[in-house]
Every structure is written in structure tokens, then in C-alpha cells.
Amino acid sequence: MEVLKKSQFKNVETEKAVKVQVREILNDIKLNKDIGVRKYNFQFDKNPRLRYRVTRDEIVKAYKQVDIKFIEDVKIAVKNIEEFAKVQKESFENNFEREIYPGVILGQKHIPIESALAYVPGGGYPLFSTALMLIIPAKIAGVKRVCACSPTMRNSKDINPKTLVAMDIAGADEIYAVGGVQAIGAFTYGTESIKPVDIIVGPGNKYVTEAKRQCYGNVGIDFVAGPSEVLIIADETANADYIAADVLAQCEHDYSARGILITTDKKLGEVVSKKVDEILKNLPTRDIAVSSWRNNGEIIYVDTLDEAVKLSNKYAPEHLEISLKNEDEIIDKLINYGSLFVGGLSAEVFGDYVSGTNHTLPTLRASRYTGGVWVGTFIKTCTTQRLSQKAVDLLAPVAHDLAVEEGLYAHANAAKVRIK
Fold this sequence. Notes:
Elements: E1 2-5, H1 16-32, H2 34-45, H3 56-65, H4 68-90, E2 96-101, E3 104-112, E4 115-119, H5 128-141, E5 145-149, H6 161-170, E6 174-176, H7 180-189, E7 199-201, H8 206-215, E8 220-221, E9 229-234, H9 240-251, E10 258-263, H10 266-281, H11 286-296, E11 298-301, H12 305-315, E12 319-323, H13 328-331, E13 339-342, H14 348-353, E14 379-387, H15 389-406, H16 409-416
Parallel strand pairs: 4-5, 4-7, 5-6, 7-8, 9-10, 9-12, 10-11, 12-13
Antiparallel strand pairs: 1-11, 2-3, 3-14
Helix pairs in contact: 1-2, 1-7, 1-8, 2-7, 3-6, 4-5, 4-6, 5-6, 7-8, 9-10, 9-11, 15-16
């Protein structure tokens, strides 16, 4: 293995100051409710709203502020995301009950979570695509109350109109003009005007991420997300232009984003490096992209594909692209990734917007133990059991004795009293 371009990326634990500030804001929201939300909305976003829920009139106004082509494009993305989510939902059509021991009938059923919040970031870009990725699978799953929220545009009481339109087309039941830690706190604990939800999904900055971490338990979350990342495995048959473009598509997200190339062809790595520099010269988001590429970008040359696979599984990237002469040779060996893009034409950008898979994915090696947001994120698999007297007569003595062995005598008695 040879590192052609080294990364300075460090997975630094959340700063103590961030943890403390988030805890203080959450406590304020818990205690002062709407008053606290209002205070932080204005402090951080200069959002003067007194009522957080977006009205139908505001949504209609947003449609007038975006062009028809944008709406048509969003609807294409929505259709593909919905169709894939429907196929995912089919995997839950297997409720069952089965006798697994004389008189013992066990089963399971899949129950949609009752309420969910789709947190859609604001910041430098209107991330309307995230609204689609969070709201649609929740609706397809059968969540009865799907809320969406986003910070308002700076010095404004309005959510970006593109984001608002996307939320509406995706089918959000309630939309709120609130963001940041205060939004996470409000939908966790509830306020006078915001009912709490059962699960909060969606990415955010380090403060939102820390808020989700601290609120977990009082509310469900998808996962704790960090900087976005892409890893590309490529051989001599790969297109260097595609790879350079995909690396920078990731790097422009933010200063901590990561673009990584692992290749069995040293020359390809060198060519990609040059092409990245060429694209950066005229890239409108150059300031961010050049910083994240220089600080966090990597190009690694390996001798074999097996070595590339082992390295990729160790990185456990959010997005994994493979561009090889024969991708099928390694697909089954790849086990840690948020979403897999097979072949040079399958760019991450399509997954980000329109192909139909979800772009809310695990980062910082979390793909070792979880996948991304999907229909299943909003569905609970719950078990049931039915016991006949015959089953009790057979199993109660066993349960009684095991309970006694643990020193739990009330448990033992609960089994004993049922024996006839």
C-alpha cells in the first residue's frame, strides 16, 4: 500500500463547550417551552416568529416563489423515492403467528411509529432534497403524524421556499419554522404549541447532532451523523474525470467532508489528483471544496482488490462507489457502507437526489452497525405470545425453577399459580 495523498482528518470528540451549551439550551426549552424556542430562534437565526407552525397561505406563497421546472424535478425525485420505499415496505408484509412448542403460539407484527420529525437543515444551502428523503419513507411506513421543521433564512421568518415546497410535495402533515437545538428540544419535550414526537430523523450541524445525542432515550433518533464522506474503489478501467467530479461533489458539503480514492492503478490516482486541481480552479464552491480536499482527501494505491476491500470495510464509508472491470468480483465482500454505487455511471449525486435510494446515511464508521434512513426506520417489529393451559402445565415448572435460580421469587410464584 502506498498513500499518494495523505489526509489530516481527525475524528475529534464533540467539544466540551458544545455539550455544555446544548445541555443548557435543552434545559431552557424543557423549562420555558415556547418562550425558550422564541429566544433561541431569534438569537441564532434572527427569526422573529411568534407562531412556529407554517400556514397553508405561506406554503402557497412558496410555490409562487419557485419555478415550474423545479417543481417538476422534485416530483420526479419524489416518484422514485416513493417507489423504492414501497418496495421496502413490502418486506414488512410478513406478520405471523406460529406454534413453536405445544400450546405456545408466538408471533410478530410490524407497527408504524405514531409520530416523527424530519429535521431539514438550513445553513449555506437549501437542503430541500433531505426533506424528501426523510418525509417520504415515514409516510410510506404509515406514520400518522409526520412533522417537518427547518431553520428560517437568516434575518427572516420564512423557511427557504424550495425547502418548504419540497416538504409539502413530500407530504408533511405539519411544518414548523424552527431549527437548531431548540427544535430538537421542542419536539422531544413538547411546548405549548409543539407536540412532541416519537422519533427525530435528519442531519444537522454539531449542535443539532449533540442535541439528538442528549435527547436520545426521551425520543428515538435515526443515528448520530458526522461529516459527509465518499470512498471510491477503482482500477485501471475507471474514468478519472468521473472520480475527480465525485470526490469534489462530496468535498463541497463542508470543511470536514471527506473524499477518498483507493485504486489498484497508481497512474489513475495521479491523474485523478491533477484533475481535481483543474476542477477546483473554477468551482463556485471552491473555498469549501479545496479546504476539505486538502485537509481530508486521500488517494491510496493498493496492490490487490482484496486489499482495497479490507481497507474499505475498515473505513466503513457513508457512500461507497466501485468502478472496476468486474464489480461483481468484490460486491459480496463489501460489508460496511451506508449506500453502494456500482459502476462508473452510478454517481453518488443520483442517490443524493433522484434515483430513489435514501441519502440520509451513517457516517464516521457507523455503517459497521447500522444502515441509513429507510421505511424500516419508522416501523417497530413487536412480538406476541399466546399460551394454552397445556403449554403452562409444561413450561411453568421450568419457568418457576429458573426464576428461583435467579432469586426472583415473585416471578416464580407468577408461574406457579397458573399450574393446574
